[in-house]
Amino acid sequence: MLLFSGSSHPDLAHAIANSLAMSLGRCTLQRFPDGEVSVVIEEEVRDQEVFLVQSTCPPVDNHLMELLAMADACRRAAAARITAVIPYFGYGRSDHRNSEGRPIMASVVAKLLESVGIDRVLTFDPHVPQMEGFFQIPLESLTTTPLLLKGISDHVSKDVVVVSPDAGRLGLALHYADHLKTEVAVLHKQRHSGNKTQIHRLVGDVKGRSCLIVDDLISTGGTLKDVIEALLAAEAVPEIAIVSTHTLLCAAAADVLQHSAIKYFITTDTVPQSLDLPHVKVVSVASRISTAIERTLAGQSLESLY
Ligand code: R5P
Fold it and tell me: What angle (nearest 5°) sits at the alpha carbon of residue 64, between those of residues 56 and 243?
């Protein structure tokens, strides 16, 4: 089998290769002067199992196009099966139409991936589980929750309240609350645009309690900032812990993560992390991916990683 890395997250691809005691396949990724992607797969992939590691994090379209080009090159060179390992799946939030005149980009991306001959997709914590329905090929949705729960347990007090930033993360918050044997609070959040949200109401009692905010994604940090402010306004203890699966540092997100009320922040490396702050911990998904690859090659179920 062969494992190739796109340009989005070579550190993670190397960590996966190390964990599998192998080297990454050679491939040259460049851009033509006009910006078009140029890919050359420099290994014999004929009749081989191929895994392509590429997070579709910003610049999302560039990374997506590069992945499509790599898959197309492998398919045309007669690879036996192509698995796209997409630790963070960009466009995942575009899963329905808020109004007429809008596309459903998660569906568009699924069609593009299939069109270049990708046989299966392996990803972590997609924004909505129904995303699987956009694909005709298997979408293996692995979870990061056990990794993050393990990392957070020693950093929250017994009376912590698990906070869901919006209705969409309530299931995740309940899952954490169940493990930590505590309660949940949820915010009524409305999104006005890509960088503007509004909190209408906090449901649950956080007064005098420490809080653990759980979210699948931090992009601009706008949601996080609003939630922290709502919790402080409701007189929560200003020692807030945060769990985020995918942490993109767009706009002023890095500044938000330095908020004085944040005591501990834990995230994964599904996208490259450059945060160097004492209260920030990054756990790697590399070993979960290598386990998933090994099981795929052995024809075993991945269900225990879901
Ligand atoms: C929303 O449904 C997600 O769970 C995140 O809360 C949101 O996408 C984060 O985006 P931002 O950091 O830009 O507010």
Answer: 10
Centroid of ligand 1 to alpha carbon of 303 (angstroms): 27
Distance (Å, whole) CA 212 – CA 234: 14
Asked if residue 179 lies in contact with residue 189, where contact means CB atoms within 8 angstroms, the answer is no
Domain check: are 167 and 240 in the same one?
Answer: yes
Total number of domains constituting the chain: 2
Q: Which of 126, 131, 135 is nearest to 245 (CA)?
A: 126
Both 199 and 277 in one domain: the answer is yes
We report the CATH number of the domain holding residue 159 as: 3.40.50.2020
Q: What is the mean pLDDT of each run of 10 residues along the chain (306 residues)?
A: 98 98 98 97 98 98 98 98 98 93 97 98 95 97 96 94 95 95 94 82 96 97 95 97 96 94 98 94 98 96 91
Q: Say how many Å lie between the CA of residue 280 and the centre of ligand 1.
A: 19
What is the distance between the alpha carbons of residues 231 and 209, in angstroms, rounded to a whole number? 10
Domain identity same for 111 and 197: no
Residue 66 Cβ inside 6 Å of ligand 1? The answer reads: no
Whether residues 186 and 268 share a domain: the answer is yes
- Rounded distance from Cα 301 to ligand 1 centre (Å): 31
Residues 25 and 100 in one domain: yes
Could you list the residue range(s) of the whole structural domain that residue 24 is in? 2-143+286-305
Whether residue 221 has its Cβ less than 6 Å from ligand 1: yes
Question: Does any ligand 1 atom lie closer than 6 A to the CB of residue 247?
Answer: no
